[in-house]
Design a protein that fits this description.
The protein is α/β, with parallel strands linked by helices and 324 residues long. The protein folds into 2 domains: 221 residues, P-loop containing nucleotide triphosphate hydrolases (Rossmann fold, 3-Layer(aba) Sandwich), CATH 3.40.50.300; 69 residues, BMC (bacterial microcompartment) domain (Alpha-Beta Plaits). Helix content is 34%, strand content 29%. The strands form 3 sheets. Strands 6-7-8-3-9-10 form a 6-stranded mixed sheet, with helices on both faces. A 4-stranded antiparallel sheet has the order 2-1-4-5. A hairpin with a 2-residue loop joins strand 4 and strand 5. Helix 8 packs across helix 11. The chain is elongated, with a radius of gyration of 25 Å. The structure holds adenosine-5'-triphosphate and magnesium ion (MG). Magnesium ion binds next to helix 1.
């Protein structure tokens, strides 16, 4: 059994409004998967159902094979959950709180001190272990929430916007941590921040308005959007002829100072070799090569196109009109 998380036809309705509308996906053991979507997409609702905090209207969810409705204890035993709003006890000190949580989660007395030490270290809250939670900054509080999710060393981690409220250094630490957990532990994390999934996730599930709209690796999602591009800034008359004779398709070109920018579609096969050959031919012909850039659609572009499918795609030219 290699499936750590299985979500099948999950529906959650509030009145007539479906916060989650027939969502299915799986996460395999050791994967780090990003659950991506704009505000109100249904991320937190899905995760709450997954960890057994909320019952679905229909559909099912399983953690390591245990149905979260039918067998909640077994499912929860495998889980570490960091909710969107971390519920902490302000009057407790950090290490004391983690001890309390470890006990609740059934971490044996003998193993508790080591488990707390490990969680403090992984979430980088060792330096505040004796501080009252009420006296912590928001980012540190988030980190204590993360330590809480980690303290039972769960096989499956479900993190709802783990880096919300953190500064850039903290965000980097948490991304590195999440990445390092992969392989050993299974991680499903929600976010609406795109660089987050590129930095730490092997796969992405995109949700919008309660529906699953895409799924794949960050680079597969990039490929959905448009074919790879090669942009060259070149000076010298032979450039155009050399490009025309190459396997690259000329998409557009325009003057850039005393040089010219060429946007090319790359060939489907042997792209690397084709680029090397083109550049060496250009240089050999005395063309000044100012810049060579390989472009792929950024995840931002993909995200925008997936979650606003009703809006027209921008044309290749930046000044392309936006027809209503
Ligand atoms: N208890 C509730 N009662 C009614 N509607 C709710 C409830 N909880 C969530 N919703 C609605 O369900 C939809 C999905 O909310 P959810 O919190 O899952 O979104 P999200 O993707 O986590 O968004 P965010 O990025 O803002 O955290 C929203 O339209 C929200 O208003
Ligand atoms: Mg949310």
């Amino acid at each position: 059994m290699t499936t750590a998380i299985a979500v099948e036809h999950l529906v959650k309705r509030y009145g007539v409004h479906a916060a989650v509308n027939d969502v299915s996906f799986e996460v395999q053991r050791g994967e780090v998967v990003g659950f991506l979507g704009p505000n109100g997409a249904g991320k937190s609702t899905t995760l709450r159902i997954l960890v057994g905090f909320l019952g679905p209207t229909s559909g099912s969810a399983r953690i390591e094979g245990h149905d979260v409705q039918a067998d909640p204890h077994a499912a929860k035993a495998a889980l570490g959950y960091m909710p969107e709003a971390v519920p902490l006890y302000g009057e407790m000190r950090v290490a004391e709180y983690l001890r309390f949580r470890a006990e609740l989660k059934g971490v044996g007395r003998a193993a508790r001190t080591a488990a707390i030490g490990r969680a403090l270290e992984l979430a980088r809250v060792v330096d505040v272990k004796d501080t009252l939670i009420d006296h912590l900054s928001k980012g540190y509080r988030q980190r204590v929430g993360l330590a809480d999710a980690l303290v039972s060393n769960p096989r499956v981690l479900v993190l709802d916007e783990p880096t919300a409220g953190m500064d850039p250094n903290q965000i980097r630490d948490v991304r590195d941590l999440i990445k390092s957990l992969g392989g050993e532990q299974t991680v499903l994390l929600s976010t609406h921040i795109l660089p987050e999934v590129e930095a730490s996730c092997g796969r992405v599930v995109v949700i919008d308005k309660g529906r699953l709209v895409a799924e794949g690796t960050p680079s597969e999602l990039g490929a959905l959007r448009r074919p790879p591009r090669l942009e060259l800034v070149l000076r010298g008359a032979p450039a155009r002829g050399i490009i025309a004779a190459s396997p690259f398709e000329l998409v557009s070109d325009h003057d850039e100072g005393d040089a010219r920018r060429f946007v090319l579609g790359t060939p489907k096969k042997d792209e690397d070799a084709a680029i090397e050959a083109l550049v060496s031919e250009l240089v050999g012909a005395g063309v000044g090569v100012r810049s060579v850039e390989r472009g792929k659609a950024s995840l931002e572009e993909v995200f925008a196109s997936l979650t606003h499918a009703h809006e027209p795609e921008p044309a290749a030219e930046p000044e392309g009109g936006e027809a209503a």
